[in-house]
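sorry to bug you again but im stuck and you know this stuff better than me. theres a chain ive been looking at and ive put its sequence and its fold in token form underneath. id like you to explain what the token line says about the fold, in plain words if possible. anything you notice is useful, everything is just below.
___
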Amino acid sequence: DVFRIGSEFLNYRKMVHILADHCGHAGEMQLILKDDGPREEVLVVVDRAPAPPETMRTALLSAYKELHDVVEIDRLLKLTVEAVEGERLARIAGSGKLRAVIDQRKPGSSP
């Protein structure tokens, strides 16, 4: 559950725990990694959001130093949080298991 984006290695499970501890999130969460022009983007998609997306974004940035630094200081990464219904989350065909991290970046785009 560790992935590289921007100039950092980030941890999916750490982000899940931050949203649970700081926002009371108990639903599913999916990360979509994208290209966003000269930067990259992490789209955090949450099911059953207990707080507004901007509140959840703020919690992630305040509790995860490496994420904060790459988003707010280095400006190499865009962080967006979106609340959706659970059936909109991508799943593995056959098993129905949640795809926790989906990498939609073009090959070779990561630094």
Remarks:
- The chain has a mean pLDDT of 92.
- The CA atoms of residues 6 and 76 lie 5 Å apart.
- Strands lie at 2-5, 8-11, 29-36, 39-47, 77-84, 101-103.
